[in-house]
Structure formats: C-alpha cells, structure tokens
Design a protein that fits this description.
The chain is α/β, with parallel strands linked by helices and 143 residues long. It is 27% helix and 24% strand. The protein has helices at residues 30-36, 74-84, 90-96, 102-114; strands spanning 5-9, 14-16, 27-29, 45-49, 65-67, 88-89, 119-124, 127-131, 138-140. Strands 6-8-7 form a three-stranded antiparallel beta sheet. A hairpin with a 2-residue loop joins strand 7 (119-124) and strand 8 (127-131). It is elongated, with a radius of gyration of 17 Å. The mean pLDDT is 78.
C-alpha cells in the first residue's frame, strides 16, 4: 500500500485538505486532519509547502487571520476576543482568557502582534487596545 503524502505549511503546520472545493484549498490543524481521515495509526509522508496565509507571494493584505477550532487554545481565545470585541483592553482580555496567567497572555499578545495577526494600539500611557489588523477577517480552519 502506498504511503499517503500530506501537504503541510512549513510556517504554521496547517495541512491542506486533499478534496477539491469551489472555494479553493482548505487548511486545518494536523491533528484535525489526522482524525478526519483516520490516519492516526497510519504511516504517512509530509511534503512541506506554504498555506495561502504564509506564502511569501501572497500580499499580506489578502491573508486572513486563522485560528484553531479548539476554543481552549490561548491563541484562539485572544484572536476571537479581538474579533468579537474590537478595541478590547488587556485587562478585559485577561478575564476572557480564564485560567491563563498575565505572563502567558501578554507573551501570546506580543507574539501575535509581532507576526501581524493582531493589532496592539497604545491608547494612553499604560492602556492598550487589541483588534484584528485592518482588512483582516477571522476565519476558522476548515472554513
């Protein structure tokens, strides 16, 4: 039996769905892909590529902000909060992120803002607001 080849983004580790779609390629987390196709107990090969959101030839203005479907991830919580409450401040964000520490939340906000997935604006001394970058939309993997 031939080993399946899975196309994986070399930046975010998202996997390209093999089925054709009228909406173009669908990308999802590797774990979700393995479960969906019953490949947990199967040997497979990975071919590294870029998803549309990390392809250097795609203009950054055309990239969507993708978040994992697992609501318990800190990244997902932060991005959803920024999309649902544009201008959310860090104090409110900390309450949305539940059991995560201030340090964990701040480090993830810093990482997301440096990667361009999140906009962090200084409103006044010591007060910051978060939102998605202008022109970005929040899209769940598999959508």
């Amino acid at each position: 039996m031939e080993m399946p080849v899975i196309a994986v983004c070399c930046v975010c580790k998202a996997v390209r769905e093999q089925e054709e779609s009228i909406h173009g390629d669908t990308w999802m987390p590797l774990d979700m892909y393995l479960d969906r196709h019953d490949l947990r107990e199967t040997n497979f090969q990975m071919a590294y590529t870029y998803c549309p959101d990390h392809d250097p030839s795609t203009p950054s203005s055309a990239r969507a902000v993708r978040y994992p479907d697992e609501p318990q991830t800190l990244r997902g919580k932060i991005l959803r909060a920024a999309a649902e409450e544009p201008g959310i401040d860090l104090e409110r964000l900390l309450s949305v992120c539940g059991s995560h520490t201030w340090n964990e939340v701040f480090m993830e906000v810093d990482r997301l803002s440096r990667s361009g997935e999140l906009r962090l604006d200084l409103v006044q001394t010591g007060v910051y607001q978060l939102s998605l970058p202008q022109g970005k939309e929040l899209v769940a993997y598999g959508k």
